[in-house]
Amino acid sequence: MADDKMNSPVKVTIHGPASVQAVKRLTETGAIDHGHTLVLNFELSGGGSLSLQLPAAILASVMRELWHLGARAEAIRNAGGIPETVVDALTMVGSPSSRTTTDGRVILGLPTRQGFPVSVAIDPAQAEEVIAALTAALGSPGTKSTPH
Fold this sequence. Notes:
Blueprint: H1 2-6, E1 11-15, E2 23-32, E3 37-44, E4 49-55, H2 59-79, E5 97-100, E6 106-110, E7 118-122, H3 124-139
Antiparallel strand pairs: 1-4, 2-3, 3-4, 5-6, 6-7
């Protein structure tokens, strides 16, 4: 069932002139379908409104992409163009936290300067990989980790 919710379409309803308009403000948010669908209502600059419904399962990826887009836009505003290197990473503030779940996974919590804290659930083998990657990065500043 989770896969069905992940593949649910994003629904957009526009009230008013059906043309490209700037969003004036977010007017209302909510959850429907027993929390599986999120609703965002916007007021448009032309006087109309827009209702966006998206599967809750894709919220993390949507927020991540919006944050990356905001970081790129800020870099453009500050530098007058796109810098060669844009660091798309949240800045951690405070100390990380960790706990284990009843099924043995490790939850790593990272408080960030922007938005909500980042929480990642990993199994013990993945936790060992993270420790090894962090150890390697500390030993060789400026190196990139390779994806698996």
